[in-house]
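Justification of computing resources. Each target in the renewal requires a structure prediction run like the one illustrated here; the chain below, 301 residues long, is used simply to show the kind of job we budget for.
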Amino acid sequence: MSVRELVVLGTASQVPTRHRNHNGYLLRWDGEGILFDPGEGTQRQMLRAGVAAHDLNRICVTHFHGDHCLGLAGVIQRINLDRVPHEITVHYPLSGRHFFDRLRYATAYRETVELTRAPVDTDGVLATAPAYTIEARRLSHPVESYGYRLVEPDGRRMLPDRLAALGVKGPDVGRIQREGAVDGVRLEAVSEVRRGQRFAFVMDTRLCDGVYALADGCDMLVIESTFLDEDEKLAVEHGHLTAGQAARVARDAGVRHLVLTHFSQRYTDPDDFERQARAAGFEGELTVAHDLLRVPVPKRR
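Resulting structure tokens:
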């Protein structure tokens, strides 16, 4: 069965709190699992959320500040301890290779799993799989940082009224999907383009071109909103976004479901983030994330 959902493992920025673990996000995309920014404590949060090391196929690190990567050591060792039988690919900024290597070999353990390093040093497509293409875009943060975007290939949606009008039925419906034409009737005459789903993950950054490129037309946008709008000056100084800025990006980019996360410990009321996002004009689905939350990716349009 096809499952596409976001599993939120942690939502704190810089300093964890009593109720928020450091960052960690698992995207289930059909049969694959993509782990984003495993901060400290991610391995335990995976256990609490029912996520196994075997569920992971790809790890994407936006940058090498501790709240986004200190969990790598434990996650990688767990992958090897559990003898995950498939290859796991890791994306991270190339400039942080020495940090990645230190985390990967932080302590002694036995390597049993093929871990493929695929560092990022420019905008563009990182990999193409049957169910998606994964892209990266440079962000604006005091250290090199990249956001990630998954794009499902477009498909086709069959139109029952057109099938009936042109006499295509039974096994011929499957044939025309496979072969492109049946008895002179072409697939384009009985179907329409079904737009592939789009998902973006945007962490620590100021507003920049990369943010908008990643968010464009997304079904789900997971984006940091470290600060509330009254602290915009601090956000710009430290390379972050406010709730209102994130919501305006989502509004202008046509995002269907906005997930706000990565909250500063200075704020205690999560409702403030929702109020400011709505005040900024975002009218789509809105989730202010909390730890261990599961958020379904919206169904195709």
